[in-house]
Design goal:
With about 850 residues, the chain is of the alpha/beta class. Strand 3 and strand 4 (about 80-85) form a beta hairpin. Helix 9 (about 225-230) packs antiparallel against helix 11. The radius of gyration is 32 Å and the shape is elongated. The mean pLDDT is about 90.
């Protein structure tokens, strides 16, 4: 039987609203699809701007690759700003690929799809239904909005004008609409535009289904999204600040939008037939709880703040599992899944994956390096796209009304400059969402020089600097932001707390977080940050309390679930850890840190094969992070390396490190290893003295390890001295064998006092406790780092029984050492400030 796929986009549809309606039996068409197929969350991307996201759905690629970066674009030929078109899409969409493969596609209302590309099939672009002027006046079809153009006369009357919307259309949504004062009817005008647009899309799609052959069909509806932007504030339960009269008037609009959408779905499914694979999906969700925004802030594309990070999807059709939930899917997975269903190869340059787990059986996914390099006819536009001022103006006005863009400056040069900056900012946010902080920061720093409002750029730069632990720079940007926008003080409290933590001012940061946690809108984030704070302090029980509170507020936060998983892991409770890590990847499959934590938990539980697979998944999702690769190598060595050292099996070079607190015997150990046959990396900058008459064996660059480690390859195959406090800055490009010198802390402090020429004076209060805490943190860090092998060596044991300790060191380092020469370097006379036990 010939395969057919129907892809239906419900912009902003959300399970939090759908599920109660399903339970009440008010969405029968969608309910039928769900019972006979699969459902799940669909992770969105940052920023959640619909034209960008729907292009990612159609291409399987992130916006930095496909080129659609916002709601508007620049027409460089005519020097004007216009609604986004396919002109700036840099890659092929599904319908282009299908055209090349001899298949027929129909695309109705996709955003963006104007002007219609000359594929084998029917395209009705997003500009086709846009109303121009009042009813009764000429309403020409926008040039290029219909392909083939010969269909224009047949479908132009399918368009519904907003002024054709009557009481019969309005009253099912707003039963008391007749009571609305004439001066307050702007909401009804907006309602009429949304209803007319979506009715036009539905009329065109059903006409195309009845009057054309097709293999693939895509239909896009913006009804739910636009009705939510207009009426979500009135949705039950009533918010305190919403006037009762308005609540009573508009409380049923959002639910009614879903019900009307379901009615259209019922007709569409009947026309599609039961042999069609049907996917209903949204690009993001919509906030419907107590965190709804009543007064929109004056920031770039502010309405997107109301979008929730998870959309929805339902899939039903031949081969699809029945009645199951699929986890961890993203909107980038839609295009690869459809290609694979048609037995066509998926581009390796696509960012999604085929949802094979949604099918009882599925073709093994075939791959091609890229569809972009395949030659042939893909029905893409070959020339500059002409503008249609009237239609584009109507589309621009709608975007302005919705708040997605500001009204362009009447000075065209200023408008073009602002648009260029907005698009660059959107690209920076795309990179930020992909955790490519370097590229994002580069663009943002360039934007700071522009003559526009720079406060959004500063906000993202603060975040990037905090992530990269550049707290001084973050603090500077924060001060600049607060100076430019004094009202931002409360909004930036979380960032201030993170900076304080980074600067070591834990008490002050904690006070801010505890204050912020009392604000309902910010409580989840504050408890998450408090949980992370107690994790750093190794107070894991306290961390659990706050992380559980964060999850109570938002159980669908993958990062909250993962943080709780890590806390359980540090408490050596791997089963509980595994449970929450699995929940995090059910929400967001592309979460390399969560897959890594699953590996840690499974390894602790003794499931080495499972751990290896989890580490491999983490490695595949984030190849730049070497930690997972090293952890996987460790497992392989346990399973297969009986006659090989990890050094022989690893792809990472190894460095020997001598570490410990200052005055714990590190210089003595460096001298011993040097005489034993391992070349030390030293520079002689620090000369021997009475404290270390045989030398310090130091390398000056080591002192700046926390700032720069690019030089560390100089230490490969050698031994390097690194003070304990700097070990955590060792990069993961190497494996390390660390000989860690331990010594009684009272002896260490006494030796340090002598070296500082303070004699028997007592060290500063709290120094000993600080050292104890530092050593505890170090133990915790070593447990988490798969590339660290650590051997603790007691200074007093080396002095009292050097032969025994040298044996241990040689076995640990797995190299042949001249043990006698090492023993000869131990001089008991240099063991000063010894604390003798009675």
């Amino acid at each position: 039987m010939k395969k057919k796929v129907l892809l239906i986009g419900w912009d902003a549809a959300d399970w939090n609203i759908i599920d109660p309606l399903l339970k009440a039996g008010r969405l029968p068409a969608l309910e039928k699809l769900i019972k006979g197929g699969v459902r799940g969350n669909l992770s969105t991307m940052n920023p959640p701007y619909s034209p960008m996201l729907w292009t990612s759905v159609a291409t399987g690629k992130t916006p930095d690759k496909h080129g659609i970066l916002g709601f508007i674009e620049l027409d460089t030929h005519n020097q004007l700003v216009r609604p986004v078109t396919v002109a700036h899409r840099k890659v092929k969409a599904l319908w282009n690929i299908f055209h090349n493969q001899g298949m027929k596609s129909n695309m109705i209302g996709w955003w963006p799809s104007h002007p219609a590309e000359p594929i084998d099939g029917v395209i009705v672009s997003d500009l086709f239904p846009k109303p121009i002027g009042s009813i009764g006046k000429p309403w020409p079809v926008t040039k290029g909005s219909v392909h083939p153009s010969s269909l224009t006369k047949k479908i132009e009357d399918l368009r519904v004008h907003p002024e054709e919307i009557t009481a019969a259309h309005i009253l099912p949504f707003i039963p008391d609409a007749a009571k609305i004062d004439e001066k307050d009817q702007s909401g009804l005008k907006g309602f009429s535009k949304i209803m007319a647009h979506n009715a036009s899309i539905h009329a065109c799609s059903t006409w195309a289904m009845e009057n054309s052959e097709w293999d693939f069909m895509g239909i896009y509806y913006d009804m739910i999204d636009h009705f939510c932007h207009g009426f979500m504030k009135f949705h039950p339960p009533k918010l305190t600040a919403v006037p009762q009269k308005q609540y009573d008037m508009y409380k049923s609009v959002v639910d009614s939008a879903y019900m009307f959408q379901d009615m259209m779905l019922e007709r569409t499914l009947k026309l599609a037939g039961e042999d069609t694979l049907v996917i209903v999906m949204s690009d993001h969700g919509y906030v419907s709880d107590q965190n709804r925004i009543l007064v929109m802030p004056d920031i770039h594309a502010a309405p997107a703040l109301e979008h929730r990070e998870f959309g929805m999807f339902v899939m039903n059709g031949p081969g699809v599992k029945k009645g199951q939930t699929i986890y961890g899917t993203t909107l980038l997975d839609i295009a690869p899944t459809i290609l694979n269903y048609f037995d066509l190869p998926v581009g390796r340059d696509m960012d999604g994956r085929s949802m094979s787990d949604a099918f009882d059986s599925m073709n093994s996914c075939k791959f091609i390096e890229s569809w972009e390099t395949v030659e042939g006819d893909f029905a893409v536009h070959q020339k500059e796209i002409a503008s249609d001022p009237l239609s584009e103006q109507a589309a621009m006005e709608q975007l302005i009304e919705l708040g997605y863009i500001d009204k362009p400056d009447t000075n065209i040069e200023k408008a073009i400059h602002q648009t260029k900056c907005d698009l660059r900012f959107n690209l920076a946010r795309v990179y930020l969402g992909k955790r490519d902080y370097e590229e994002s920061e580069k663009i943002l720093l360039e934007l700071l020089k522009e003559d526009v409002n720079i406060t959004p750029f500063l906000t993202d730069l603060i975040h990037i600097c905090i992530v990269q632990k550049k707290f001084k720079e973050a603090s500077s940007y924060l001060a600049q932001l607060r100076k430019l926008e004094p009202k931002s003080l409360n909004k930036t409290k979380l960032a201030e707390a993170k900076i304080l933590f980074g600067e070591g001012l834990v008490k002050q940061g904690r006070q801010i977080l505890e204050e912020v946690s009392k604000r309902p809108a910010m409580a989840g984030t504050a408890h998450h940050e408090l949980g992370k704070l107690f994790m750093r302090l190794q107070e894991y029980d306290k961390a659990l309390v706050h992380l559980k509170k964060a999850i109570e507020i938002n159980p669908e936060s993958a990062k909250y679930q993962h943080a709780l998983s890590v806390a359980y892991l540090r408490l050596k409770q791997p089963e509980e850890s595994l449970d929450h890590s699995l929940k995090s990847i059910e929400l967001v499959r592309y979460f390399p840190d969560a897959h890594y934590t699953i590996g840690e938990a499974l390894e602790l539980m003794g499931d080495l094969e499972g751990a290896k697979q989890a580490y491999a998944t983490s490695e595949a999702l984030q190849p730049k992070i070497k930690k997972a690769t090293i952890a996987k190598e460790n497992i392989v060595h346990q399973q297969e390396g009986e006659h090989k050292t990890i050094r022989e099996m690893s792809q990472f070079p190894e460095i020997t490190i001598v570490s410990g607190l200052p005055r714990s015997g590190t210089s003595m150990m460096m001298q011993m290893l040097s005489e034993g046959g391992i070349t030390p990396l030293v520079d002689g900058v620090r000369k021997d003295d009475e404290s270390n008459p045989k030398g310090y064996f130091e390398y000056e660059k080591t002192k700046g390890l926390h700032k720069n480690s690019d030089w560390l390859d100089e230490a490969e195959g050698k031994v390097l001295k690194v003070v304990a406090q700097l070990l955590k800055f060792l990069p993961r490009d190497f494996r390390y064998k660390v000989v860690f010198m331990t010594r009684d802390l009272d002896e260490v402090l006494a030796s340090q006092q002598t070296m500082l020429k303070k004699g028997t004076a007592s060290p500063k209060e709290g120094v000993k406790q600080s050292f104890e805490a530092e050593l505890k943190k170090l133990d915790d860090w070593c447990d988490k780092e798969p590339g660290i092998q650590l051997l603790k060596v007691s200074y007093s044991d080396v002095v009292d029984a050097p032969a025994k300790e040298v044996d241990r060191i040689q076995e640990f380092l797995e190299v042949n050492l001249d043990q006698q020469k090492m023993i000869n370097q131990v001089e008991a006379s240099l063991y000063r400030n010894r604390k003798f036990k009675i």
